């Protein structure tokens, strides 16, 4: 009888995965090389592989759970933001509500909105509006031209324009243009923490914030002129 080749043995075992269930005694005599150099039984090796796979699957599951938790948290924040602007019937109230929700729900230190408009007749909200020809806007050419949020440490000129007397306290911020809305402007969120807003942050969530604020502010501006 000719000797079986290793490939034939391998093929047979693949076709009969339950082979060792019927021949448990063979497992005591079978060993395979271990990375450490020691010999271990097939059962030990299988248990090791199962543990590794279990750990990998558990890690993946924990990762998915964490993502789901973050998504729920983000959804709750957006819900509070939407309520804050919808409940406001004036620009003054909207800004007051946004300051509260940004501090309590988003846990931010500073918040600012600037609307680019030549009509600045509302003296009570003079700081809210900026003339399209203002030299201050040259500090935000990148954001306004790209229609994308910019995260990181602001320049001193940007910080002074957006956050006024708190400018030197802002170590990181996100500057979001009001893209895809009926008005043009900027939304800024600042923090005393240097790593709170990092340049590698995703922009989708931030853009949605500016869209919500810009859309509601546009409606409030129309109501104010009627």
TrEMBL record:
Annotated signal sequence range: none
Pfam families, sorted: DUF484
Domain of life: Bacteria
Organism listed in the record: Methyloprofundus sedimenti
Identification of the protein by name: Phytochrome sensor protein
């Amino acid at each position: 009888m000719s000797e079986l080749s290793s490939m034939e043995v391998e093929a047979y075992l693949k076709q009969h995965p339950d082979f060792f269930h019927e021949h448990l005694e063979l497992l005591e005599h079978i060993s395979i090389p271990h990375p450490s150099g020691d010999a271990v039984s097939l059962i030990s090796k299988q248990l090791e592989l199962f543990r590794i796979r279990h750990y990998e699957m558990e890690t993946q599951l924990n990762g998915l759970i964490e993502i789901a938790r973050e998504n729920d948290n983000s959804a709750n924040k957006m819900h509070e933001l939407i309520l804050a602007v919808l409940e406001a019937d004036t620009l003054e109230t909207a800004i007051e509500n946004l300051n509260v929700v940004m501090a309590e729900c988003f846990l931010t230190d500073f918040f600012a909105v600037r609307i680019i408009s030549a009509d600045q007749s509302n003296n009570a909200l003079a700081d809210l509006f900026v003339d399209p020809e203002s030299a201050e806007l040259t500090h935000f050419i990148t954001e306004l031209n790209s229609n994308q949020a910019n995260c990181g440490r602001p320049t001193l000129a940007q910080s002074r324009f957006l956050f006024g007397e708190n400018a030197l306290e802002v170590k990181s911020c996100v500057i979001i243009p009001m893209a895809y809305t009926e008005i043009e402007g900027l939304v800024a969120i600042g923090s005393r923490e240097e790593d709170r807003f990092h340049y590698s942050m995703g922009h989708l969530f931030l853009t949605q914030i500016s869209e919500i604020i810009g859309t509601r502010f546009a409606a409030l501006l129309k109501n104010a002129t009627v």
